[in-house]
Batch of 3 targets.
Target 1
Amino acid sequence: MMKKVFGFLRSMRFGMILLTLIAILCIAATALGNETIYRSWYFIALFAMLSINLMFCSVLRAFSLKKQKKALAQRAIQAEAVLPVKEASQWLETHHFRVEGDVAFRNTSGFLGPFLTHFAMLLLILSAACIFLLAQTQDLILFPKENTELPDGTVLYLESFQLEDETGETDYCSSLSALLPDGTETGGETTVNHPLKVGRYKIYQQDYGYAAVIGLKTEKNAEEELIWLEEPAFLSLDGESGVYYSQIFSNVKEENGEVMVSRSGDMINPAYEIQIVDGEGNRTSLVYPGTVIDVGGITFSFKDPGVYPGMRVKTQPEWTLWMLYLSFALMLLGLYLCFFMIPEAAHIKPDGLSIIGRKDISDRIDRYQDELEMGSSK
């Protein structure tokens, strides 16, 4: 019973079932936009079982390499001669066969092909799992002309953000500059599906939002200071008198003496909901861009709402990428050995040579026979 279970776990059928289920889940995650599927217990369990399947295949193939070579030699000994070669030893040497006892071999590295391919697939899964599980993500909001510092000391500065390009096409483009810990300056643009590489980080354009933009001027500071507010805040010099910013309405309409407001959609006729706090008490009011008020020694100048990007910053250990590159290189090598280095075994007989391949090599035998005929005609 256990032998049957073990045989099924290492079988290609079981591997194909697992790959099909994983593909279905990946399609579902992409279609639904639900990345939590990739971290679900059943998705991880399927990957674990696929790893076990490939590990069994790789280990068993590694242990069976000598048996495969011995079996191929036995077949060559039992086969009939297909090449009427007179100087067999010289012909074998010319065609790069290596004599080992009674049998000569060629392309013996091809025995490693299936093992390397299965091992590369296992390494690919493990490297993908490491990249996925060890990746660190940070979601951040950055207002234009402001900066933030990342965990390794990299300073990220947002030059500008735009929703549309010059032609009016939707763009969602953030223009960034960065100062790396070693003092190197770098930067560029990030758009949807086109992340920007900054040092050890990849910066993805994720979403956007609107923020209140308010100019502040005091008697001590004649120069106006612009601030961006994404959340409610109380703006005051003494902590008592000032303006409490509450929220933005994207569209404010007055119909039949009633004010109708909307928080969703484009900024068609925006307005800010605020509370004025002074000696006369608290007064809630709607103010439009262009409004200027003086409260508590501050001149508040309400500007048009500004748009800002939401970005996702990702980083991962560098060795995981090298592990991924190694798995691709090993897979290419394994596939090359499988398809282009087919092992052959030849045995010298009284009437010529018998040649057997691990796969069908009838085309190659035909070529050998053509060479012999051309040589004899000369």
Note: The first helix runs from residue 2 to 9.
Target 2
Amino acid sequence: MTVRDWVLGLMLPGLTLPMVSVAAEQDPEVRRLMEQYERQTAPAKPQRKPAASKPQRKSAAPKPQRPPLAPKVRPIPAVERHPVEHQSVVEPEMVLIPAGSFSMGCQPDEQQCGDEERPAHRVQVAAFELGKYEVTFDEWDACQAAGGCSHRPSDAGWGRGQRPVINVSWSDAQQYVRWLSSQTGKAYRLPSEAEWEYAARAGTTTAFSTGNCINTNLANCNGTGADDTGCGDNTGVYLGKTQTVGHYPANPWGLYDMHGNVVEWVQDCWHEGYTGAPQTGSEWRDACAASGRRVVRGGSWRDAPWLLHSALRNRDGASVRSPDAGFRVARTL
């Protein structure tokens, strides 16, 4: 058996071969083959498991930036503010009164006039607006509820609503027009005496805007007296109280109750006659302190028909309240 055969026999499984000599082991070929055999028969070394890859570390989320500290400010004490309430105001219906001139006072053909209505004089009036109706209880009560008017007038048991407000003085009326102006931003006021008569006449020169006659069918007045005008004004009708505004026919310029229902406060101070009166439509302001009285115009529910004529003038103290006195508003353009 050659050494090669022996070595090759080693490679055959299950074959038993005799020991090879030491000398044969020194043979280079034998050693090579034996080393080859040993490599083939040596138990395989366990393969080293590759190191598990480390999971990538998630980058930490950026820390939120802390906002810079606000500078310390000393707190300002709160100021208590009271809200100003603007009530819902229904403005009076107004009529545009055109500019013009007229003869103010008792006219030459009028028979029932007082000295305080003379002398008749020419007055130039600028255009303005005048209330279509007398101020009503509804309108006054809105002012009183809002705190603009301090007085709550009695209705004398006749009802409120659309009846003209009564039991109000000239001073009370000033509260109302100031409140109405503040709520609307418009210049409401009482009319001057000249403006009032100009609007009441409405272009007429007769005693009344209805002509030379008037009666209880045309105005709220007392028809139980004598027939003073010779027009049959003694109808026997006397209601003895106010009526709702607009109940009777309007005058030619669309104004209601310029004759009767309630006498109406105007802005002017009282003078005993027209000597020295303004020749414009402005109010007559001087002598207010001396007289202490203000003018009322128009006649009322308790007056005889002849006392409703357009030129009629009367007066009362500025603080007097009466069940036959009210007012209407004017507005400057």
Note: Helices lie at 3-10, 22-26, 28-41, 137-145, 170-184, 193-201, 288-291.
Target 3
Amino acid sequence: MNLRFSVWQAAALLAGTTIGSGILGVPYAIARSGLLPGLGYVFGLGGAMLLLNMLFATVVEETEDVKQLPGYVSHYLGSRLRWLMIVTLLVLGYGALTAYTAGSGAALADIFNVSPVFTRLTFLLAAGICVAIGVKTVSKLELFLVILITLLIGGVGILALSHTSFTFPDVSSDGNTAQALLAPYGVVLFAYLGFSSIPELRMTLRQTPDAIYCAVFTGTILPVVLYTIFVLAVLGLTGSDTTRVATIGLGEALGPTVAIAGNLFAVLAMFTSFLALALVVKNMFELDLHLDSTRSVLLTFLPPILILSLGGDDFISILGVTGAISGGTMGILIVLMFIKIKNLQQKPWPLSTWLLSGGGIFLIGLLLLGMVVELFTTL
């Protein structure tokens, strides 16, 4: 297979995991904080996630067997922290999978004017088939879907240029406080969480393992660029009237055609993240808990169905807490694994390792502070 195409497939898998329902809440959060502070979160957390992804790529590359996050934690940090990682990953995974299903079902129901129950089941069936087929097919589909998402964001940007004078909101008038300025943290962090798919990148690039760093860089930077364009376009169009789910406000501002295109974008964004995240959960059951494929698929898909059947279909309001707490916990464990693996090599650290480790320690402090901040702004 062509190396360049393989790298783009792997980068698309990471980008597809990252670009999910979180992007739809980012403009609203930034509308509360004001444009400049909000873009500071987009760029700052994007840089932090690039560092975190590179650290985890190093852990994955320097470990002989391919595992999922709990397996790596068990190998380097012990069984107790392994169970912490499993619980954290499942909370994040099931919450996000449920949110993606509920959001996509609502968007599809709006497009086709049918029951959300029917569209949710159709969405789950399509995703289940893709996940059951395996990582190669999913990564190829991710590449196709990420290209479509990029084109849709470009289209929204062009429409924004032709419909707006680009007067952006300042800090929310209903709360010119620290709470408004801190509002984007959890939502933006959730929107960047894609590092759990990095083991799948190694599987996609098994014949050219060193290419994983190029794929990680590309797959991390692409969401930063797309989020920036999307935020500027949405806030330029809807300003302080930006809705919690950005595509709804776009439809109200630009008419029914854009409403359909916006809902289509939302479905594509959530479908790509659902595929990659469901694959992570399934592989965790197979590789780390040693379950067979059938039980792994069932344990991946049944909890979201159960949660939805019990009425738990409003997850947008808790995406920030989920991202800050679950993402922060996983990020801290990844930094600790990187430091441990470098210590196990029993040789002097080069300057690059010292710099990466120092950045990782700084990142631990940032993630811990972020957990406190998110709880403060939510409670």
Note: Residues 132 and 297 are 7 Å apart (CA to CA).
